[in-house]
Here is the input.
Amino acid sequence: MVVVHPTVDVAITKDEERGKLPKKGFFSKYFLAGQQMADPADQEVPPDADFVERFLITKRKYIAFLLPLIVMHMFWWFTAYRYDWFTLFSTRWQMPAIMLLGSTVAGMTAEGGGAVAFPFMTLCLQIDPVTARDFALMIQSFGMGCALFAVLYMRIQIEERSLLFGCLGSIPGMILGFAFVDELFDGPQKKMLFVSIWCSFAIALYLLNSQKKRITYSTIPDFKPWKAMVLVATGFVGGIFTSFAGSGVDICIFSINTLLFRVSEKTATPTTVVMMGLNSIIGMYCRAVWYANVSEITFEYLKVTIPVAVTMAPVGSFLGSHFHRQKSPTIPMIK
Here is the structure.
């Protein structure tokens, strides 16, 4: 039986209402709120723990960040030296620069790095949406894959049933989207669809942020079959969005969790990070291996952006896990 813990925000004081809250208090409340763990008992060190066990428990959050970073950087530097990828930086420097922001946002919030990469590539670099979509999926598979590891290793609270049923819908939706939906739209139509999706997400976040004292839950309360069907259907629609924009299932599942099921943003955000990481890996396999028609420019941008993504996405997950639940959706809404 799943235990559901309702949470309510602390009442706003008169000083807060008048904007007189000290800066330190404001920062501590909203940006050092602390991590919401799946099982707080996992953070306790057993009395008979040896040095290794004690180290793995007490330094878990740092291991979660450093381990994927070191492994991925080691492989990247060896490969980059072997095939001389360094020469690509003179012409493909734009995406590593923009993904400093994109990858941090991907790990910190409910939106994937494709939410930054796709519009930048299509609008600023004038690259076709198919190439932008492929790059978004591929770079997310590395960056959000590392963020996925960080979330799971730190044992941050996620909504496992939302992840399961969401993926059951999103993976078929993404595969069908690659095969049938993607070719139905031209470049300008895909850009308009992308803008429409994110405008809808911004409205959802505004509604969410306007409810300051709403009751939230650590997981979906009173889980029933109809809720599973809603998650599958939402995942399917999000998978179709992902098939032409490189992201979408994350914001769909985040919105349905927080607005309909009243799940706390501190649970919903890492859940979408894990979901988008898994979907990106599958999407990359479909495009690069199954269809095998990814353009050369996509691989060139990928080669120079991997070290940025695998560094900043886990950083984003680490920082975002400490944010107050009201600040988690604020960043993508501002963007």
User: Anything to note?
Assistant: Strands lie at 6-8, 215-217. The two ends are 39 Å apart (CA to CA). The CA atoms of residues 6 and 176 lie 38 Å apart.
